Amino acid sequence: MKIERKIILLNAIYLVLIVIIGGSAIQSLNSVSSKQRFLEIADDLNTSFLEMRLSEKNYFLFNNITALYEIKTNISKANDVLDSVKDDIIPVIGESSYNELKRGLYNYNVAVTEAIDNGSWNGEIADNIRTKGHDLEDTSSRITKLEREHISNIIYRSKLLLFSSFFAVIVTALIVSRVVSRMVLKPIKYIELQARSIAAGDYSKIESPIRRDEFGVVIEAINTMSEELEQREEELIQSKKLASMGVLVAGVAHELNNPVNNISMIAQTYEEMYDKLTPTQRLEFMKKVDQESERIKQIVDNLLDFAKPREPRLSKVDINELLRKALLLVQNSLNVANIKSRVELAEGLPQLLLDENQMQQVLVNLFINAAQAMRPEGRLTVRTSLDSENGMVEIRITDTGKGIPSEYIPHIFDPFFSTKEEGGTGLGLSVSYSIIKSHGGNIKVDSRMGLGTTFTIQLPVNDEEKGRV
Amino acid sequence: MSHRIMIIDDEKIVGDMAKISLEEEGYEVETFLNAAPALKKLEEEPFDVVVTDLKMKNIDGLEVLRKVKKLHPSTKVIMITAFANLDVAIEAIKEDVFDFFPKPVRIKELKESIRKALIPDDQTKP
């Protein structure tokens, strides 16, 4: 069912509840007012009954026959009243009470008529009049009393009903608003989470039972958007790849040009000066040619790594040990540059699934970069830690070097971007980046001019090890 | 007195090889890997010809050209570059560069260019 309909339905239920409450309150009021009408009539009747009894008393005291005629007139008046309000009164006091009253009047009338017919005083007839009159008054006041009780009962019930409906309305309002917010907020929260994960680059579809409401439409739209985004991103990557191919080709040309020129110049000099060169010099020339060839090979190797990074050959590696090994490899360079190193390695890190050679290449590269950025007396710090929340092991490599200008930061992982004064191929960090990425990790940089630079590498702990962490 | 030639290139082999060939021709040759000390040296004493690489990390070849021309207008500057970039070439010609060589450099051509550079101004251009 659509959410709009659900909300309308809930509101309708709520409305019906209020109508029922209002209706019953009105009914109570009606019934009170009709009973009130009866009481007014009853007051009139009681007054005429009272007058009858007064006339009766006159008859007894003075044996006045005219008093009996007065009674008869009053009886006929009361009868008229009862007849005229019959339809109003029967629903209020019931037919039996009405008939009782009528019968009382009739009996009284019979008794009074008998006395008139008899003419002279008769004790038995007089007693009969008194009894019938008394009965009639009794009946009338009993019914009136009963009706008064009825009225106070109705008022009491109405009060109770109004109070309880007041609470019912409040409770229903709370429940309805809660149900509505659940109905609406829960899927919104879910969609929000999904949007966040799309923003983070996870384009997986929303797994949700098919909904027929508005959220079903929204989820479908998000899934379509997600697909589009994924496709666009692939296109973007492709065009970026093409763009970096351009940079790559220009960079390669330039990088290769220098050693090629060197070899060419050595060859020309060798040829021209052959006779004048000593055998040692000739040997030196050839060594230089070999070195320059090696340089070309390095560039080509890096290029191949960059163009088509080979799949990592994974094995379980103790990352702390790997860091110590990599540090040993560059120790000589650090000594020459007079740079101190410090290691702060976390104990008990899980073993990681890594390509040891590739990762060593990354670490050595970062160490050498750090060393080259520092003046003598600089300090290279290597830290490891476990980020158990994200299931990552973190490696932080910090130098006290001159820092990277903030405008360079977005480019430092680009191929052929180099800030080194000489000898940088501009491929080291870009190759490192692709190696870390192919391990499912992240690498980021944080640098402050004049204070130093920290490279942070995050590597995922594999699922098997995660259980033990 | 032999002619004094300065070579500035951050590739050491360029300087070394040029030096061997040019000294064979009887020139006095000094090589520099960085522009800064080379310019300092030029402030102290003049050279007849300065051969400089165009693309160096600290100071670029055009900057060297301007400084040399400012210090010693008669000194000839020959530019070596890995890239034959037309814009840079035009700029260099405006700044009165004597000659322009793309890498890889033909040493014989370089020697020929230097020989021409050493002929007094009123007689020739390459």
Quick summary of this structure?
Chain A is of the alpha+beta class and 469 residues long. Helices cover 70% and strands 9% of the residues of chain A.
Task: Quickly list its features.
heterodimer; A: 469 residues; alpha+beta; de novo design (two linked rop proteins); Heat Shock Protein 90; 2 domains; five-stranded mixed sheet; two-stranded antiparallel sheet; 11 helices; 70% helix; B: 126 residues; alpha/beta; Rossmann fold; five-stranded parallel sheet; 5 helices
Describe the overall structure.
The complex is a heterodimer of chains A (469) and B (126). Chain A is an alpha+beta fold and 469 residues long. Helices cover 70% and strands 9% of the residues of chain A. Chain A folds into two domains: 3-179, de novo design (two linked rop proteins) (Up-down Bundle), CATH 1.20.1440.210; 312-466, 2-Layer Sandwich (Heat Shock Protein 90). Chain A has a five-stranded mixed beta sheet, covered by helices on one side. In chain A, helix 2 runs antiparallel to helix 4 (95-118), helix 6 packs antiparallel against helix 7 and helix 9 packs antiparallel against helix 10. Chain B has 126 residues and is of the alpha/beta class. Chain B has one domain (4-117): Response regulator (Rossmann fold), CATH 3.40.50. Chain B is 43% helix and 20% strand. Chain B is built from five helices and five strands; from the N terminus they run βαβαβαβαβα. Chain B has helices at 12-24, 35-44, 61-71, 86-94, 107-117; strands at 4-8, 28-32, 49-53, 76-81, 99-102. In chain B, strands 2-1-3-4-5 form a five-stranded parallel beta sheet, with helices on both faces. In chain B, strand 1, helix 1 and strand 2 (28-32) form a beta-alpha-beta unit. The longest helix of chain B is centred in the first third of the chain and has 13 residues, at 12-24. The two termini of chain B are 24 Å apart. The chains are: A alpha+beta (469), B alpha/beta (126). The A-B interface holds A 253-254, 257-258, 260-262, 264-266, 268-269, 272-273, 276, 288, 292, 420-422 and B 10-11, 13-14, 17-18, 20-21, 24, 33, 55, 57-58, 82-83, 103-108.
